[in-house]
Design goal:
Keywords: Membrane, Transmembrane, Transmembrane helix. The chain crosses the membrane at residues 25-49, 55-77, 97-113. With 152 residues, this protein is mostly helical. Helices cover 86% and strands 0% of the residues. It has 4 helices and no strands. It has helices spanning 2-11, 13-54, 56-114, 119-138. The protein is flat.
């Protein structure tokens, strides 16, 4: 991998890729600004049409309320979806931590098997981990530690 990176730098491939990326960014920026201008003119045309039909004050009030409602909807949708984004990040983080743990365990495994304790060094924590996993699976989350009568 390092050799391909060095050869890419030496051949000028990286410079060409940067040039292509810069050109694409400029083109997309120009297209975005043209699209925003077009959207602005469409909003202006809709305002002129509604001002001619309903009067300028009613059109201004309608557009103002409409854009405020649109802003509120955007914020509401963002807040609602924030919970699912946080859950996805937590799941991804847990999966990454499990992968790191498994990788570390596999890296240390040959060394542990060669040592004096051998298999016993590995089986002890593995049994403890399995017992803890079984315990976690069987305990209901939010279970009350008090007795059934409701008294503590």
């Amino acid at each position: 991998m390092l050799a391909s990176l060095i050869s890419g730098l030496a051949s000028g491939e990286t410079v060409a890729a940067m040039r292509r990326a810069r050109t694409a960014a400029i083109v997309y920026g120009l297209a975005l600004s043209a699209a925003l201008c077009g959207l602005g003119f469409l909003v202006g045309a809709a305002y002129i049409w509604s001002a001619m039909r309903y009067g300028s004050l009613a059109a201004a009030l309608g557009f103002g309320v409409g854009f405020l409602v649109l802003a509120g909807l955007i914020l509401l949708i963002y807040q609602i979806s924030a919970g699912s984004r946080a859950r996805r990040r937590a799941q991804r983080r847990n999966a990454d931590m499990k992968a790191i743990g498994i990788t570390a365990a596999l890296a240390v495994l040959p060394t542990l098997l060669k040592g004096k304790g051998g298999l016993g060094v590995i089986l002890g924590p593995a049994v403890a981990l399995a017992a803890y996993a079984i315990y976690r699976e069987n305990v209901k989350p939010g279970a009350d530690d008090g007795d059934e009568s409701g008294r503590n």
